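Why do we care about 3D structure at all? Because function follows from shape, and shape follows, mostly, from sequence. That is the central idea of this module. The next example makes it concrete: a single protein chain, its amino acid sequence, and then its structure expressed as tokens.
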Amino acid sequence: MDKDEIFELIDQLYAQAKMQFGNAIKSRWFYDRDGCPGCGRKIKEMKWKGQKALSLNAFIYREHGVLIAYLLCGKCAKHIFERSEVDPNAPTEVHGEIEKNLKNAFVKHLGH
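And the structure:
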């Protein structure tokens, strides 16, 4: 998957978020720093159900009205997938770390 494909998917996520949340979503931002926002590991393709995959995710940073899209490393993605099979609505400890790191990165990005 190349960057154009990733940005096309982010555009779709943004359009869906705008339809669902309206004016609460003002912009989008892609976290493209080196390292997974959950653990800092290198992000690369992983195997999921026998296929090559990337874990593209997004959340809304409500205070700024921004949809933040990001990729996860295989270890963090698999941990979240496995936990969601047990309890789909329960956030993991990784979710808190990811959101904290992404919020900090976004605020830093605003200050350039």
